[in-house]
Design brief:
The protein is α+β, with helices and mostly antiparallel strands. The protein contains five helices and four strands. The chain has helices spanning 15-28, 52-69, 86-89, 104-107, 114-133, and strands at 6-13, 31-38, 43-50, 71-78. It starts with 5 loop residues before the first strand and ends in a 31-residue tail after the last helix.
C-alpha cells in the first residue's frame, strides 16, 4: 500500500517572500517543491510535499524566513490529503519545470550570450572613461578649469565664495 505524503502550503504577499520561503523549505527538511501559483493581488502560493514531520518543519522554517522578507498570508499542512484534491495540488499553474517553446527563438528569450554581455560591459566602461576624460572639474565640468575632483571648491574657476 502506497503511503500518502503530506502537503504543505505557504501563501505570501509578493514573489520575493515566496522565493525565500521555497528556498528555506527545501533546505530545512527533506521535502520536494511541487511548484508555485501566482494569484491576483500579489499573492504567491508555494507547495511542498514529503513526510508529515518534514513538511511541518519545512513550512515552519519557511514561514519564519518569509516574514523577514515580506508578509505571510497563510500557512497550512495537510497530513494526508484526499485523492480527490490532487487537482488542486498538481495544477497547470505549477511552474517548476520549463515549458518547451514552439520555436527555438522563443526558447532562447531568457538566455544570455556570454560574449554579448562582455561586449556590453566593455562599451559601458568605454563610455564612462570618455565622460571622465572630457573634463577635470566635477563641479563645473568645464575642460578649461584646472580643478580636479577632490580639490577644494575654491580652485574651480566658476566657484564664487560667499565673501566675494
Amino acid at each position: 500500500m502506497k503511503r500518502k505524503q503530506a502537503l504543505g502550503i505557504i501563501e505570501t504577499f509578493g514573489f520575493a517572500a515566496a522565493v525565500e520561503a521555497a528556498d528555506t523549505a527545501v533546505k530545512a527538511a527533506n521535502v520536494k517543491l511541487l511548484g508555485y501559483e501566482l494569484a491576483k493581488g500579489g499573492l504567491t502560493t508555494i507547495k511542498v510535499v514529503g513526510d508529515v514531520g518534514a513538511v511541518k518543519a519545512a513550512i515552519s522554517a519557511a514561514e519564519a524566513s518569509a516574514q523577514k522578507v515580506g508578509k505571510v498570508a497563510a500557512v497550512h499542512v495537510i497530513p494526508r490529503p484526499h485523492d480527490e484534491i490532487d487537482i488542486f495540488i498538481k495544477s497547470k499553474a505549477d511552474s517548476i519545470e520549463t515549458v518547451p517553446a514552439e520555436n527555438k527563438e522563443d526558447a532562447n528569450i531568457h538566455k544570455f550570450n556570454e560574449s554579448d554581455v562582455k561586449e556590453k560591459k566593455e562599451e559601458e566602461i568605454q563610455e564612462v572613461d570618455q565622460d571622465e576624460t572630457s573634463y577635470t572639474c566635477n563641479l563645473c565640468k568645464d575642460p578649461i578649469c584646472p580643478r580636479k575632483k577632490g580639490d577644494p571648491h575654491s580652485n574651480c574657476i566658476h566657484y564664487q565664495s560667499e565673501n566675494s
